[in-house]
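FORM 12-B: Structure-to-Sequence Request
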């Protein structure tokens, strides 16, 4: 029992003794309560006279002002949905709740609770989840090594960040290191590719960021996209600025197999690569964390997760906001965003996607359930953790020579 409730119950038990007692007895009771609960004397007096019109101690638990709109059960469901929805921000969560609740099959999620969840504003969601989010922050680490820009600057043109892209097919790519805090030795990397217009994302795990492996993973992702790509924007890392990677797209264009042009960002300007930098956090780090994956046998399970459950979950059920306008007013930058939508919804609204492709996407969407996908993702993550623990147990400890 909290200190406030204990005070109210104590006052309820002693109200008759206080109200009917002598002046000396009332002074003694006030001194005891003031000492035990460290409350102002006048506050305790008001509670005693307020208790005179109350019949039960439970009525003291009512807060001043209007009653609570959301009880503990509603908050519990909000926290549970927040985890199931991959910890998306409040504005995206507010837009996603209607079609997420349609897929929910738990009978304990009553109509009354659903109506209260749908009534919440994004600021209310933030306020109710504030304490729940405190332990979710993580650190960042970069493993990008500069490529030979001088050799390829004429073949791979420089391209600054653009926010006026109105059709799918403009891709950004980057790699994420699963090094566990140490860049020494070989370990697994994630190739992450996103479409700027729709936010559609795809990932593949590769070993040691070898240029052939990165090219094969890129080709695999391009073949699985529900739209045709026309540009691929990368940073200046050596995994993208090499003869193998650049020659592949040049030959594809010369033979007429594709019209994908490769561009690169300015060195040390992360805003030229802003969309994929954001997805590195939400689509890779939040899923796999910051552990070191140096076991080659983990590549296939990670790719199985990337290609199936994780891709369907993020692209069909997680809304994203897009920046519409950014205005500089004095020392402040005012940003305006559109209504959060999933990549699937943005593709359905696009005029550049054929009706056949839209029908295929709709058929895939109808057969998916976000709660089942989330459960399957968690099961596969547990299997990856077991493989990770086994690789740590079998690996021999490295000994460092001592200085003479």
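FORM 12-B RESPONSE
SEQUENCE OUT:
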């Amino acid at each position: 029992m909290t200190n406030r409730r204990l005070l109210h119950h104590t006052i309820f038990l002693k109200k008759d003794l206080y109200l009917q007692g002598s002046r000396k007895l009332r002074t003694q009771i006030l001194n005891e309560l003031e000492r035990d609960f460290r409350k102002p004397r006048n506050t305790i007096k008001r509670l005693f006279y307020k208790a005179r019109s109350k019949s039960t101690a439970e009525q003291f638990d009512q807060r001043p002002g209007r009653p609570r709109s959301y009880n503990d059960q509603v908050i519990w469901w909000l926290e549970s949905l927040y985890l199931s929805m991959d910890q998306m921000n409040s504005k995206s969560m507010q837009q996603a709740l209607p079609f997420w609740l349609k897929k929910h099959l738990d009978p304990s999620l009553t109509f009354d609770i659903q109506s209260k969840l749908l009534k919440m504003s994004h600021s209310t969601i933030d306020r109710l989840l504030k304490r729940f989010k405190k332990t979710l922050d993580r650190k960042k680490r970069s493993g990008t090594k500069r490529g030979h820009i001088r050799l390829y600057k004429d073949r791979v043109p420089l391209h600054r960040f653009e926010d006026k892209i109105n059709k799918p097919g403009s891709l950004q790519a980057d790699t994420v290191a699963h090094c566990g805090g140490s860049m020494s030795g070989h370990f697994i990397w994630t190739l992450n590719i996103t479409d700027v217009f729709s936010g559609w994302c795809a990932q593949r795990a590769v070993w040691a960021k070898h240029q052939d492996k990165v090219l094969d993973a890129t080709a695999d992702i391009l073949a699985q996209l529900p739209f045709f790509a026309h540009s691929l924007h990368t940073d200046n890392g050596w995994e993208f600025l090499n003869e193998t990677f650049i020659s592949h797209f040049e030959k594809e264009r010369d033979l007429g197999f594709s019209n994908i042009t490769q561009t690169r960002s300015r060195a040390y300007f992360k805003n030229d690569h802003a969309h994929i930098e954001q997805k590195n956090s939400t689509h890779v780090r939040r899923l796999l964390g910051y552990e070191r994956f140096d076991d080659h046998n983990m590549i296939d399970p990670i790719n199985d997760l990337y290609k199936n459950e994780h891709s369907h979950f993020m692209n069909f059920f997680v809304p994203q906001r897009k920046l519409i306008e950014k205005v500089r007013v004095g020392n402040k930058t005012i940003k305006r965003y559109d209504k959060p939508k999933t990549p699937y919804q943005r593709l359905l609204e696009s005029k550049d996607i054929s009706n056949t492709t839209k029908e295929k996407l709709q058929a895939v969407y109808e057969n998916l359930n976000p709660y089942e996908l989330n459960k399957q993702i968690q099961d596969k993550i547990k299997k990856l953790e077991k493989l990770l623990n086994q690789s740590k147990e079998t690996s021999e400890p490295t000994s460092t020579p001592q200085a003479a």
